């Protein structure tokens, strides 16, 4: 197998000698381009008569001239920076929720009746706080 590397726009010519009878496949590998493989049938009965077919559309080729079907793009273009994409991410949603909580919760606390606030604070003081000892006692009983 021989390889020839060409820059874009260059042409290459090949000659093949002593090709055995049978079916052969010619594949062109060129960075940035896609070529259709070509099936070449060399006849043993007709003294080396050659017929070439494109494998993509099974079209008989009168001349063995290969041209790229399309350009290949190996890399995807990077998406541009978007502030909305940042806000839609899970981390952006968590940060947004925390910012809202920091600014709205104090406003909600101000709107609570002062007598109701004192009563809630008293109830919280009277409740036993969670401690390591209480947790251990709760598990043993």
Automatic annotation (TrEMBL):
Domain named ER membrane protein complex subunit 7 beta-sandwich: residues: 14-94
Membrane topology: Single-pass membrane protein
Stretch list, region Disordered: 118-141
Residues annotated as transmembrane: 12-35, 91-109
Source organism superkingdom: Eukaryota
Localisation per UniProt entry: Membrane
Major site of localization recorded for this protein: membrane
GO cellular component terms listed in the entry, alphabetical order: EMC complex
Pfam families hit by this protein: EMC7_beta-sandw
Keywords, alphabetical: Membrane, Signal, Transmembrane, Transmembrane helix
Protein name per its UniProtKB record: ER membrane protein complex subunit 7 beta-sandwich domain-containing protein
């Amino acid at each position: 197998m021989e390889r020839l590397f060409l820059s874009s726009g260059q042409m290459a010519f090949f000659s093949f000698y002593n090709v055995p009878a049978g079916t052969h496949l010619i594949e062109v590998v060129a960075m940035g381009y896609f070529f259709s493989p070509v099936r070449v049938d060399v006849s043993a009965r007709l003294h080396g008569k050659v017929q070439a077919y494109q494998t993509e559309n099974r079209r008989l080729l009168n001349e063995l001239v290969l041209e790229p079907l399309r350009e290949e793009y190996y890399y995807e273009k990077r998406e541009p920076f978007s502030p909305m994409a940042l806000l839609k991410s899970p981390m952006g949603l968590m940060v947004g929720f925390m910012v809202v909580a920091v600014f709205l919760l104090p406003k909600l606390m101000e709107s609570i009746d002062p007598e109701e606030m004192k009563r809630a604070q008293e109830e919280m003081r009277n409740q036993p706080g969670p401690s390591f000892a209480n947790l251990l006692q709760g598990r043993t009983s």
